[in-house]
Amino acid sequence: MAMSSGLSGLPIPTMDWSATDAVRAFAKFKELCLLLFNGPLADINEERQVNYLLLWVGDEGRELATSWNLPDADRKRLKSYWDRYEKFVKPKSNFRIARFKLQGAKQSEGKSVDQFVKRIRLIASECAYQADQIDEHLIDTLIFGCTSERIKSKLLQKDENLTLDAALDVARTEEATQAQLRDLQGEKQVQTEVVRVKSKQLNSQMKSY
Question: Does pTM top 0.90 for this prediction?
Answer without folding.
Answer: no
